[in-house]
Amino acid sequence: MFYAVIFFSILVLLFLLWDVKKPPKFPPGPKWYPIVGCALQISELRLKCGMFCKVVDELAKYYINPYGLYGLKIGRDKVVIAYYSDTINEMMTNEDLDGKPDGIFYRMRTFNSKKGILVTDEDLWVDQRRFILRHLKDFGFSRAGMVNIIQHEASFLLEELREIVNEQGGKQAEVSMHDLFKVNVLNTLWSMMASKRYDRKSEEITDLLTMFFELFQNVDMVGALFSHFPFIRFIAPNYSGYNAFVESHQRIYTFLRREVENHRQTYGNYDMPRDLMDSYLREFDNPKRGEFFSEEQLLAVCLDMFLAGSETTNKSLGFAFLHMVRNPEIQEKAFAEIKEMIGVDRLPEWGDRVKLPYCESIVLEAVRMFMGNTFGIPHRALRDTRLSGFTIPKDTMVIACFRGMLMNSHDFPNPSKFDPERYLMDGKLKIPEAYNPFGFGRHRCMGDILGRQNLFVFITTVLQHFRFLPLQGAMPDDEPLDGATAAVKPFRASIVPRHHD
């Protein structure tokens, strides 16, 4: 028994020594402790800094190097943070880093397997991305097609805002601003996905979007507590976020299954597919269909597109209007440009952006403020590789921190200030070389054009007809909320019709 205890103790000691040993030429970073890695240091910094991206900022002061990356270990996961623009570019164009993270957090969201499009890799990702882009173009996912869909939705938005004002007396109305556009933004993509437009008064859709907003604020881009320490979901399922994660995904899959079943019952009545759901269902009937087509894959793709269609654009709109409510003079400059260049007798169009450089600058700055507080979707090393001269072991998670690229004072002086003027020179648009919020290479966000079109058309349309003012004595807080993606804190504002005086 004595020797067994000694032997076991030696094994434990060897494990602990192995667990804190960094791989050769791994990027510099905080000290690793047994089992937890850097988790305790990161937790302490979160109490001090708040947002995880600010924790990354703080760590960069000590561990960043001329190559712009450093290494962490959170629980059992090795994580490398790519911080500078050149490093992020190298990371996203290195095929060895084309993988996406694996593990319970990423598999549980898609039926305990790797499915969908956002966090898949290799042949599955290539095959499904190609299929999705090819068929979405048939239903409007192209520059011309999307413009019509977005402008149609912007007209609905305008009427909905007028209705809200009329319901509150006709002169002005108090509205919730941080999520004002969420249903309209979702509609622009969902019309191509499922030929459906949701009413902003639909309790089901607003509840689902609110639930996902809350879920996104309780995890971060490196996962949740239960993803780094899987055993904790059995000990503290609520505290670890496990129960909320499972419940939210069960609810949305119930909703999506109903949509798919509705399509299944009717798609045979049409000679041609109506939308992406129809295209998938027809592929199921194809005896030569690829190995990656299944109902679970369709549901996972719908989930990913559902989130993609509401997350980035809606939150960028939140940042835009937060700062315009805090700085109404930005709205007035934009309106003056709209009035002078296109007038008020027709709605703005995507093609007007060349005439409206100040308005387009608002879009650029809104995306910078959102992505500058956000991380890219994590990548995973498919094999041992190198990044900026350092060794990245297989299965290491590599994350682009856009804060280092978009919130640095060298490329963006006074980076925390919302300043559309920074993109203008002699009245013309001049975008800094470091401005790459949608990524690089084939991992560039496939919805970047849709997002920019949504932002431009929605912002110019509502500013053409309304002012958005702070409530008396209630200036909204400009400190973002943390989460998988950053968000503005919930706030309300007064919406006032312009009447084109």
From TrEMBL:
UniProt xrefs under Pfam families: p450 (PF00067)
Membrane keyword on record: yes
Chain residues that bind heme: C445
Membrane topology: Peripheral membrane protein
GO molecular function, one term: steroid hydroxylase activity
Coarse class of the protein's main subcellular location: endoplasmic reticulum
Family membership noted in the UniProt record: Belongs to the cytochrome P450 family.
Protein name: Putative cytochrome P450 303a1
Lineage: Eukaryota, Metazoa, Ecdysozoa, Arthropoda, Hexapoda
Gene: Cyp303a1_0
